[in-house]
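Provenance

Sequences were taken from public entries as deposited. Structures were produced by running a predictor on each sequence independently, with no templates supplied. The record for Asparaginase from Pseudomonas violetae is shown for reference.
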Amino acid sequence: KETPTQTEQKLANVVILATGGTIAGAGASAANSATYQAAKVGIEQLIAGVPELSQLANVRGEQVMQIASESITNDNLLQLGRRVAELADSSDVDGIVITHGTDTLEETAYFLNLVEKTDKPIIVVGSMRPGTAMSADGMLNLYNAVAVASSKDARGKGVLVTMNDEIQSGRDVSKMINIKTEAFKSAWGPLGMVVEGKSYWFRLPAKRHTMDSEFDIKNIKSLPAVEIAYSYGNVSDTAYKALAQSGAKAIIHAGTGNGSVSSRVVPALQALRKDGVQIIRSSHVNAGGFVLRNAEQPDDKYDWVVAHDLNPQKARILAMVALTKTNDSKELQRMFWEY
Ligand SMILES: NC(=O)CC[C@H](N)C(=O)O
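Predicted structure for Asparaginase:
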């Protein structure tokens, strides 16, 4: 009978769930940093490309899907969420890494942050350049993800994102630019840094997540339709009405400034709310919105909800998860303050 070596005994067990994206991308030449195909390289090849991972953890991979993340569906989210929960429940798994396209990485990270009942580290990671490009960033991002996933310090901090040497909260982080390797930022700053495989922490998330969340992937059978309508000064009510007609239970108003609403569509949004559609005011300002109740619009009077600092795409994730529990606008608003 084999006895494990001392290193094997000490190392954490980390599972890498691969979903595709640029971190699994391949281009025609090393000069192709922006023109390439995402979701081409399989998980075994990704792991083999970073032999140093074996010094951090006992790593194994699973190919959950192989897609560019702009095409992630609600069913994909549920499938991934359920697999993460199974792994988190198993006693021989200490941490989970998810490789992911960066376009919707912030949505998946926030979703998992809301619904995974575990304090084991869950790290979502991607890259801005494919592995075939000069100065590819995926190797180090993946190394950092496995380092954080195998560290005890990362437990109980919610779902995390390791890009560009930073450890970001999956709730706060957003893709702010699509051509630089420093693409991911949070309005409230990173939680820490990961340098040469070691994590350095500076702050903790204040919002409810994972163990402290009232949502549980195991109780979510399906996600309701929540859609986003982009707003601007001369906006018409066509999109809002069409989304409601096609079955949206809530519409995220991707508003200007403080989630402000053009007077051209206020009557339509009032009418939709009367018909039972939840109206959630968010903001599409570039560096992060901060939408307050009854500022710009009388939310109490209209029975609308505000998304506070959640951008429209994150507001959509929370609204879907929240609507699996309640359709009461006051409860929804409470959740938008707490998560
Ligand atoms: N940098 C990236 O990962 C973007 C590639 C692709 N659009 C995706 O999100 O999967």
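DSSP finds eleven helices and 14 strands in the chain.
The longest helix spans residues 74-89.
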